[in-house]
Amino acid sequence: MKKAYSVILATSLVGLGLSGFYAVKSNAEESPQTEVKQRTESAANVTDSQSIQDKMLNAIDNYQSVSGTYRAILTPIDVDETVEFEVQQGSNPRSHVKVMNNKTNMSREDVFDGEFFWSVVHNEKVYMKNKVSNQPLASFDKKEARSFKNEKGEAVFVKRPNPAFSSSADDVIFPQDYAFWLTPANHKILGEEKLLDRPVTVIEGQHDDSILAEKHQATHFKMWVDTKTGVLLKLVETNDKNEVTNSIEVLSIEFDKKADTAQLSAFTPPTDYKDVTRKPVRPENMESQKSEKE
Predict the structure, then answer these.
(1) DSSP-based helix, strand, coil % in the chain, nearest 5
(2) Which of 33, 11, 3 is nearest to 148 (CA)?
(3) E-strand spans in the chain?
(4) What are 70-106's pLDDT values in tens digits?
């Protein structure tokens, strides 16, 4: 039986993104596909690579809650941000993410309270509030292939929805985009180290996608991945001159502590902030708008 997908150009939450495409469930029939071949390294390295990549692709299964802070410096798009997050998974997913632009001091806050996703820009005193649909969560099947090539030979990546809707925090706590970088022959496992007092698997690789390499102005990457959870604790990208072009580094992290239920409960913006939520156009209003134009 053919599966249903629509293919959408993929972009990363931090702005640089993947080359290729990612797939989201839809009513469109999927075109014929060829699954990406399995790794060809030694048997031991195959197991290690696949295991850590699977953990990165499904990191949200490996903890109940996570909180911490990370900094992202992305030279090609002139980004320097510090992100503070508190996320709860399980039967009652919630998230609270604060993003500070270290260049402009612009401050943003994203909150998912279990029903609504709020995005607040404090410097502008505005906010948006949108009701969240759980339909994509119900349709996702972990047993299906997460990457494959379509009939045109284009790479397709299937991204898993996050029930906690944790926005920018996903770059470290649910690093699917970076897991997709790991292709059969472009990386190796260097071993295990300690970082933030946690065992991490160190991965070194070379971008084998020319479009991605050009976007990132980088040819090589190195990842420090939390061995137990698949969370990305550190990432460094370098160019041919060994100059760092992009980096993500977790400054502090704590797993499975008791969540701050007050912070993760129903959110209310400051009373002097303006609601700039885009209102959906009702069918009856479309006719009146059409008549006015005519």
Answers:
(1) 20, 40, 40
(2) 33
(3) 4-9, 21-29, 33-35, 65-74, 79-88, 94-101, 107-112, 116-121, 126-131, 147-150, 155-158, 187-195, 198-206, 220-226, 232-238, 244-255, 274-275
(4) 999 999 999 999 999 999 998 899 999 999 999 999 9
